Amino acid sequence: MTSSVRSVLGVAVGVALLAACGADDSGPALSEAAAAGRSIYISNGCAACHGSDGGGGVGPSLVGLIGSTSEFADGTSLVADRAYVVESIMDPAARKVAGYSIPMPMNNLSLSDVESITDFIAELELP
Fold first, then answer.
1. Which strand (E) or helix (H) includes residue 4?
2. Phi and psi dihedrals of 48, rounded to 5?
3. 24-73 pLDDT, tens per residue?
4. How far apart are CA 121 and CA 105, in angstroms?
5. Which fold is adopted by the domain 28-122?
6. Domain segments of the chain as ranges
């Protein structure tokens, strides 16, 4: 194996390791738990509506969600906490965020997966 081939392989392995650890250019470094949650978030299609960085799109932004006031289509509101995030993922029809007409789909995530995603969301902070 030539040194240039070894160099290319070394770079490829390094990039793969960084990706596996959740390190990328899309935001601040995540804890191991949050990186695992981000992986589940991405692989289960959450990013399609909430954005790969949680910044929103068709669905509401998740950045800075925990601790903020969430307002719902029925006129009620609450200060979002981990329990609210878990409820929203486990039972998307429980509350509809005001201003968003497309309902969040049901999913088959385990409670463990939902808690991991919640770890990810909890680390998404406003700049």
1. helix 3-20
2. -60, -35
3. 445 568 999 999 999 999 999 999 999 999 999 999 999 999 999 999 99
4. 18
5. Cytochrome Bc1 Complex; Chain D, domain 2 (1.10.760)
6. 28-122
